[in-house]
Each structure stands twice: as structure tokens, then as C-alpha cells.
Amino acid sequence: QVRLVESGGGLVQPGGSRRLSCAASGFTFSTYAMSWYRRAPGMERELVASIFSTGGITSYADSVKGRFTISRDNAKNTVYLQMNSLKLEDTAVYYCNAFGYWGQGTQVTVSS
């Protein structure tokens, strides 16, 4: 069955960096686009970034453009989200998504 397992969350200071990983299994990873979403407290889930199957095309929410980078390693069935220059408002649970399937999420807290 499809399984997505996020990791890499934690507490980080404003201006800091963090890299999230999402390990996928149960489907042919290299043929699917992958996305990262996030849900901040009291907010709707928000699309953060997406990457096409070959990794050549990416897209980002305006709120993270220039600070976050999505990438993938098809040999490892893993998608990453490199987050730099983190802000307080980046605090959220971050979820990996593949064609409607969701991981359990990983909490990122930006706080001084």
C-alpha cells in the first residue's frame, strides 16, 4: 500500500534552516509528481511546493518562494523540502502528498 513517512521537523530559530524528508513506498515513485503542504494552527492546509516526476519542474507558494527548495531523489524514493530563512509564520505541520495520499506530517516550530 502507499506509504509516506515525513521526518526532519523540530524546533528552529527564526532565520534558521531545516530539511524535511518524505520517504515513499508502495507505488512507482519516479512516475508521480510530489508535493509538500502545511497546516498552521487555526488555518487551512496550504500547498507549499510541488515537483514533477523527473524533478525538472517545480512550483512554490508565494509565501515561500526564494526561501524553500523542493527536490527529489528517485533512486531513494524520497522527496525533500529545504527550508531556509525560516520565519515565525512557517510554523506548521508539514505533510507530504502523492496523488491524494498523505503522510502523518512532521511539526516544524519556528521560535526564538
Task: Walk me through the topology.
Blueprint: E1 3-7, E2 10-12, E3 18-25, E4 34-39, E5 46-51, E6 58-60, E7 68-73, E8 78-83, E9 92-98, E10 101-102, E11 106-110
Distance between the termini: 40 Å
DSSP helical segment count: 0
Q: What is the general shape?
A: globular
Number of strands: 11
Strand content: over 45%
What is the chains' assembly state?
Answer: single chain
Q: What is the average of the pLDDT values?
A: 96
| Computed Rg | 13 Å
> What proportion of the residues is helical, as a percent range?
under 10%
For the biggest sheet, the summary is: 7 strands, mixed
Overall SS class = mainly beta
Low-confidence stretches: none
Order of helices and strands: EEEEEEEEEEE
Can you offer a commentary on this structure?
It is globular and about 40 Å long. 0% of the residues lie in helices and 51% in strands. Strands 2, 4, 5, 6, 9, 10 and 11 form a seven-stranded mixed sheet that branches. The chain is built from no helices and eleven strands. With 112 residues, it is an all-beta fold. A hairpin with a 4-residue loop joins strand 7 and strand 8. The mean pLDDT is 96.
List key phrases describing it.
112 residues, mainly beta, 7-stranded mixed sheet, 4-stranded antiparallel sheet, 11 strands, 51% strand, globular
